[in-house]
Amino acid sequence: MQPPSAPIKTKDEDLMVTAPDEPSAKQWAQLEHMARAAAQRAYAPYSRFVVGAAVLADNGNIYPGCNVENASYGLTTCAERNALTSARSQHGITNILAVCIYTPTSHPTAPCGACRQVLNEFGPNMRVRAICDGPERLDAILSELLPEAFVPHHLASSVPRS
């Protein structure tokens, strides 16, 4: 399989190209279901922009998360980061294979830049799917959404200060 060069928006499952590490149709269905369910638990009294997410770990488990806003807007945490934090804090997960993001909108919403960077730490080649209430969805590989990401080896190459 050749990875797509840009996110794919499709209305038809038959148009999807899959790779050996691509989640199965059943796993995608579970991710989508859990992301939609998580959105129902979102706390978004300020923006009213509800988001649910679910991540698939390399152990086969799926961990959901929702956005949680705060009156101090900068302290708001996104659904994707909450799902990842749950996977890491509860089960020590270090490798994420896929993330599904659901927004109750007419068009899919890709992860924000901060979420892309945090997700990259746990799977730069993870599959990303954004779904919505409309017929479109967005499918991509994270490294396509975050080219030239800041990665751990950048820290190792820094010069120590005296």
How would you sum up this structure, described in words?
With 162 residues, the chain is of the alpha+beta class. It contains five helices and six strands; from the N terminus they run βαββαβαββαα. The protein has helices at 25-39, 79-91, 113-121, 142-145, 152-156; strands spanning 8-9, 52-57, 62-66, 96-102, 127-131, 137-141. Mean pLDDT is 87; it is low at 1-20.
- Fraction in helix: 25-40%
The first-to-last residue Cα distance is: 49 Å
Number of helices: 5
The gross shape turns out to be globular
Oligomerization state: single chain
Name the poorly predicted regions.
Answer: 1-20
Largest sheet geometry: 6 strands, mixed
Main sheet: which strands, in order across?
Answer: 1-6-5-4-2-3
Q: Tally the beta strands.
A: 6
Task: Present the secondary structure layout.
Layout: E1 8-9, H1 25-39, E2 52-57, E3 62-66, H2 79-91, E4 96-102, H3 113-121, E5 127-131, E6 137-141, H4 142-145, H5 152-156
Parallel strand pairs: 4-5
Antiparallel strand pairs: 1-6, 2-3, 2-4, 5-6
Record keyword descriptors for this entry:
19% strand; 6 strands; 28% helix; alpha+beta
Compact summary:
The chain has helices spanning 25-39, 79-91, 113-121, 142-145, 152-156, and strands at residues 8-9, 52-57, 62-66, 96-102, 127-131, 137-141. With 162 residues, the chain is an alpha+beta fold.
